Amino acid sequence: MKKFLLALIVVLSFGSGFASTLPDEGIWIPLLIEKFNIKLMQEKGFRLSAGDIYSVNRSSMKDAVVNFNGGCTAEFISGSGLLITNHHCGYGQIQNHSTLENDYLTNGFWAMSRSEELPNPGVTVTLLKWMEDVTAQVLQDISDEMPAQEREKLIATRIADIQAKAVQGTGYSAVVRPFFMGNQYFLFVNETFRDVRLVGAPPSAIGKFGGDTDNWVWPRHTGDFSLFRVYAGKDNKPADYSPDNVPYNPAYYFPVSLRGVDEGDFTMVFGYPGATSEYVPSHHIDMLKNHINPLMVGIRTKKLEIIDRAMESDPLIRIQYSSKKAGISNSWKKWIGEIQGLEKMNTIGKKQEFEAGLTEWIRADKGRMLKYGDILPSYGELYKELTEYTLVNNYTSEVFNGIEAMVLARRTYELASLFQGGKAPDRQAVEKTRETLAAYAGEFFKDYDMATDKELFSALMTMYGETLAQKWLAPEYLKLTKLSGGDFGKLSPDFYNSSVFTDKERFDSFIRRFGKSGLKKLEKDPFYSLAIDVSRFLTGNVLPGLARMNSERQTLNKRYMTLQMEYDSARVFYPDANSTLRVSFGSVKGYESEDAVWFKPVSTLRGIVEKDNPSIYDYNVPSRLKELYAGRDYGRYGRNGEMPVCFIADNHTTGGNSGSPVINADGFLIGINFDRAWEGVASDLAFNPAQSRNISLDIRFALFIIDKFAGAGYLLDEMTIVE
Q: Considering Cα of 680, then 685, then 690, then 696, what sign does the dihedral take?
């Protein structure tokens, strides 16, 4: 335990800069809340201690917050492993269990006993056991003057050693992550649970109310939650799925509050934010805003047009493509808002102004000129090339990941590679790979529509050739362009009718009998030959240059971060998000959207009923919900004759914070974070305190839906509810 206690008193080398200029901006390391944040949090109304948030000596809030399936956050709300997260975080699992006969996406799902809870193979829940500053061990005797390759190799070796030693004999896993662009490193030791079962989810008309139209928008009226339960072995340790497993008993779970929120109330978000880039140079913002994002928006617009038409034409396709569409549209709409937000805030201009002051400060001192004088000019040269390579890589990946037959073809390469060369393949490796591929293909074809993929193929192949310069087009693509005269619609009938990757029976038969003789047939398959050629083209012509440039950028970033902290020593800094457990805090707050438009911070059920439109899937309010509204039958969950649904606050959040608990001044759960407001969606790159707002589901609405709407009130009996 000594090493944990020592970690608590580590003073960072960047201590003068470890807080926020704007109190509600920042994504903070929980280990260091006591040293850098707790006083300000308490001034804002928080009534607990830093040890209540993070402790290794006793149970604390950190023991209730989990990384859900690698991309979201969830939290325990009972001592029997009950988890709540967002509906959109559990969307893939809800969709996987849905059929035309049991359409849980449309109708919702509620297990009325634990025996009815549905297993989800492959879904994981990861819990932080402890974290520790390991900067000294990672960076000892490493300098910026070392060759980049040598430095990176040495750092990687040390990280691997630290991770291995941290978990030896424990059954845990460990990861070391860089902070402040590689100036600091923290170790995270985790425990991962593998038996996670679906307990409940409202119908999409509640859990995804408003669909893509309302996504990233306030006011919001979405009941964005789903319930899962974590199971463990009888020793309360992680175990593979088994009917004999028992509900996990967490060290801590959140009491649930019925007190609600008022404007100005303290809020804390505790979760796993994915990635922010607050300290990058203006060149990086220019690359994203003016070059990468507009083209990515364009190609995703085309994908969504095609998928939308298909979903509207057939109820089965709607189920098959719901999760795919959600994944495509989320970033699509975010990029649009990000472009607009960066323009509105003049982010590039402000960055350039900051860099001009920085340049003047550097030039005023010979020592600084020697140490830092090359950084900004080097960025300028680097990003000219980096922008082109990044665009080619991102756009190519977006095209060929959008053609589903290509994705399955690429997955088959691992099996094919076992039969290449002169030696006989390892029989055990072949069977294991074949089994894995067959399982993947089963899920693939369950949600595959050939006609939709045909249309995607024709459109995306055309856009690929029209967008990128010829030197960046894969040779096999150029060959197909010549063959088709640029009309890929001519090729698609033969491709799709003959390929093994577009029909389940053909694929299963081919894979079952696959051997060395199958290589020739595979290489003649148009999707396989194209997939392999594109992969080889990227590997040979794009990725090496991109890796070199990103290595150069990483070196510059580390030095640039140090430079910023030295130059702006009065400013206080927080580390960028990197998918590790973080705390952000603020208060419930409305905002001015545009001239003469002020948004209140709370939405209600009345707004759902006002938006009701039975002819539109995303706005077709369930009749039961309308009945409850008409009778104002809100039970103990309503307030002053209204049923609160969502609220906004000025906590700094990003992707990965979806599903994060929103906690009040007493440490009680008051909401589930699920989105950000459109006007402040650029906060991953530039936080706008006037308009950056996180959107959360009011926990009372979730309880109301579970109890009054679904009749699953028995689930509330295992919670600790604070009136």
A: positive
